[in-house]
Amino acid sequence: MTSTTLPSQPAAASKAAVESAIKESVNEGASTSSNADASEMASSDQAGDESIRTVFDDKEDFNVKHPLYNVWTLWFDNPSHKNASAAKGSKDSWGEDLNKVVTFDSVEEFWGLYNNIIPPSELPQKANYYLFKEGIQPAWEDPANANGGKWSIQLPRDKSRKDIDKLWLYTMLSAIGETLETTPTSPNSEDLSELITGVIMSARSNFYRIAIWTRKSDDPASVPGGDAAAVQDVVKRLMAIGQKFKTEILGFAPEQKLGGQGLMTDVEYQSHTESEKKKGRKITV
Ligand code: MGP
């Protein structure tokens, strides 16, 4: 991965934790035998109560956790269960159905959560998962999002159903592992060391949408102080997030053209203010 804004120690812990989590996911088929080996090792180690047990040694009784740099909250809503006017998704009624599922601060807790919730491929239409940093509501109105925007891609449901669970998992791992952030190079009046506020998975009747929400947008007014260098720095970092989303998470080639046919879109960025307009300005990578 490229540079992150984290100090080296949490960056290393975060990277190691996310990498082991990815390995566990990729090796799911092989996990039975390796877990059996691990529990044999754990039981031969049981002489002292102080023995170190990772989640890979004992899924229930582990005593080592890999801390995440941020604390995260998973939210869920399923507006199709709401009353008729709310289900239409009007701006005023939006959010009535939003529920906090759980807050976690270690990769083991994340993994426990992930293994116990319905994957996106099985979500009902209109349902959404929101994974946001603790204290930030997954809404435009939250102060952390009010001046921000989102990178998003829409993937046709029929063609992407087999991949969507993996793509959402990789999006969440990149968020909690802080691998999409880059270091600011221009001094700013506000701490902009972290641009990402959260990630969202939306299931719709004909497509899935994955989005990455950012604290600032390409609108110069969103950047405090607003001097040209600070704005340019934020835009450069937003573009880096979009490119990593397209290539490292979604697995497309950097120059690959995606949108323009059917329900598939490009990986595109829009500020929340522009997204409220009918034909708001968009950037694509
Ligand atoms: P959506 O679900 O993000 O878009 O927003 P989608 O999937 O294109 O639309 P759907 O009808 O297929 O669900 C749908 C609508 O919800 C928006 O047009 C707004 O009216 C409302 N809405 C969405 N968000 C993220 C917010 C928000 O953060 N705040 C408020 N007040 N309303 C929102």
TrEMBL record:
Q: Which GO terms describe its molecular function?
A: RNA 7-methylguanosine cap binding; translation initiation factor activity
GO annotation, biological process? regulation of translation
Keyword Protein transport present in the record's keywords: the answer is no
Looking up InterPro entries in the UniProt record yields:
TIF_eIF4e-like (IPR023398), TIF_eIF_4E (IPR001040)
Keywords on record: Initiation factor, Protein biosynthesis, RNA-binding, Translation regulation
Pfam families per record: IF4E
Tell me the domain of life.
Answer: Eukaryota
Bias kind Polar residues: ranges: 28-46
Region of interest: Disordered: 1-49
Q: Per the record, where are the segments of Low complexity compositional bias?
A: 11-20
Q: Which GO terms describe its cellular component?
A: eukaryotic translation initiation factor 4F complex
> What family does the Swiss-Prot or TrEMBL record give for this protein?
Belongs to the eukaryotic initiation factor 4E family.
Name of the protein this chain belongs to: Eukaryotic translation initiation factor 4E
| Originating species | Pseudomicrostroma glucosiphilum
